[in-house]
UniProtKB/TrEMBL annotation:
<dbReference type="GO" id="GO:0005743">
    <property type="term" value="C:mitochondrial inner membrane"/>
</dbReference>
<protein>
    <submittedName>
        <fullName>Uncharacterized protein</fullName>
    </submittedName>
</protein>
<dbReference type="GO" id="GO:1990547">
    <property type="term" value="P:mitochondrial phosphate ion transmembrane transport"/>
</dbReference>
<dbReference type="InterPro" id="IPR023395">
    <property type="entry name" value="MCP_dom_sf"/>
</dbReference>
<keyword id="KW-0812">Transmembrane</keyword>
<keyword id="KW-0813">Transport</keyword>
<feature type="repeat" description="Solcar">
    <location>
        <begin position="194"/>
        <end position="272"/>
    </location>
</feature>
<keyword id="KW-0677">Repeat</keyword>
<keyword id="KW-0732">Signal</keyword>
<feature type="signal peptide">
    <location>
        <begin position="1"/>
        <end position="24"/>
    </location>
</feature>
<dbReference type="InterPro" id="IPR018108">
    <property type="entry name" value="MCP_transmembrane"/>
</dbReference>
<keyword id="KW-1133">Transmembrane helix</keyword>
<dbReference type="Pfam" id="PF00153">
    <property type="entry name" value="Mito_carr"/>
</dbReference>
<dbReference type="GO" id="GO:0005315">
    <property type="term" value="F:phosphate transmembrane transporter activity"/>
</dbReference>
<keyword id="KW-0496">Mitochondrion</keyword>
<comment type="similarity">
    <text>Belongs to the mitochondrial carrier (TC 2.A.29) family.</text>
</comment>
<keyword id="KW-0472">Membrane</keyword>
Length: 280
């Protein structure tokens, strides 16, 4: 955890502390871009913690297999574990996604000038920039995301206990989830906003596409926390098509809220701080 914190501080504050070096590396030294991303990501993910709890249980608990009724599954969890169970994992969600959002949005802006001439297709260049930014963000997020899933799966596991267990075992499945999610989310939204599509429709379309693109990775991430010898091949084989898309309805609702709120809040903060909105 200390190494993760040191990495985060270095990645975020390097452009601030050494702006001349950052500029020579074509890194945009605007710390407020990192702050805006962190606030919007932590807020949007925290709003949907109860939905995420139900979705994760649908993926992990055999009793919920094939049951996509969000309301009925929510009632079952409340009856068995109490209403507070719906808010389990809130602390790692808030903390993890503040860090991840800071790095994701901050470095996406920083990498866009670097990737803008790699190919003749702007969409491809944006996908590469988003992927590189998320690679950094997910590395920091991984131990906190794993602890969140363990808290949701266990009835009495505390945040500290969950985080004290091996942290980076789920880095591979985390990347399988987060890379397609962020690459599709950011590139879709930017291209649509550049094409004069209004903010809300652009955010909603980005939400749906990024949710579907990252659904198999999300299922594999949940699977990895209960299988110590996890491998992608074995995970896909064991889950099958139904398992990979288990909890899709609950997650789609969750992601529409998360992505829409995140993109709109981020744009609002950027506009208020004079940073300019995405794609305009």
């Amino acid at each position: 955890m200390k190494a993760t914190l040191r990495s985060f501080l270095l990645l975020v504050f390097f452009p601030i502390a050494f702006p001349s070096i950052a500029s020579s590396l074509l890194i945009d030294p605007q710390p407020l871009v990192f702050l805006s991303g962190g606030i919007s990501a932590s807020l949007s993910h925290s709003l949907t913690v109860p939905i995420d709890v139900v979705k994760t249980r649908q993926q992990q608990d055999p009793r919920f297999k094939g049951q996509e009724d969000l309301i009925e599954n929510t009632k079952t969890i409340v009856e068995e574990d109490g209403i507070l169970k719906l808010f389990s994992g809130s602390l790692p969600t808030l903390t993890g996604y503040f860090l991840q959002g800071s790095l994701k949005y901050g470095f996406y802006d920083a990498f866009k000038p670097l990737t803008s001439h790699l190919t003749e297709e702007n969409v491809v260049n944006l996908l590469i920039a988003a992927g590189l930014a998320e690679l950094i963000g997910t590395t920091v997020l991984t131990p906190l995301e794993a602890s969140r899933i363990k808290q949701v799966a266990s009835s009495d596991l505390s945040f500290v206990e969950a985080l004290s267990q091996p942290s980076f075992e789920s880095l591979q499945p985390c990347l399988l989830k987060m890379l397609p999610y962020t690459m599709v989310q950011l590139s879709t939204y930017e291209v649509m906003r550049s094409s004069q599509v209004p903010q809300v429709p652009a955010a909603l379309i980005s939400a749906v596409l990024s949710s579907l693109a990252s659904q198999p990775g999300d299922a594999l991430l949940s699977y990895s926390t209960r299988d110590e010898g996890f491998s992608v091949f074995e995970g896909v084989k064991d889950l099958g098509l139904d398992g990979l898309f288990g909890g899709t309805k609950a997650r789609l609702l969750q992601m529409v809220v998360i992505v829409s709120v995140q993109l709109l809040v981020n744009d609002s903060i950027r506009a208020a701080l004079g940073l300019g909105v995405v794609g305009v």
